[in-house]
Design a protein that fits this description.
The protein is α+β, with helices and mostly antiparallel strands and about 100 residues long. It is about 30% helix and about 45% strand. The protein has 2 helices and 4 strands. The chain has helices at about 1-15, 25-40; strands at about 45-55, 65-75, 80-95, 95-100. It has a 4-stranded antiparallel β-sheet. The longest helix is centred in the first third of the chain and has 16 residues, at about 1-15.
Length: about 100
Amino acid sequence: MKAWIFAAAAAALCLTACSGKPSEAEARQALADLMAQSASAPVVTIDGFTLTGCKRAEDTDGYRCDTRGTVVMDMMGNRVPLPVNKNLRYTKVDGAWRAYAQ
């Protein structure tokens, strides 16, 4: 019984400490936050979102991932589609994933 409890605790610790790359949902939210902050406009939706080729960043913290999709933003009542096809860096800050263009 003690061995099972120890194994479960070790697995839980590894999952929280070694979370790895962001999930597609986490990366989508991070992209929405980045775009809303950059454009100072709310994101309506992100269409055709894909996250591929994630690799640990060599020059800084986080992961670099190829990110594609169309971010639809509400700019003064108009829906403006902005295509995204870029390698973004995703890093976890205070428990939440953030996207960076550089």
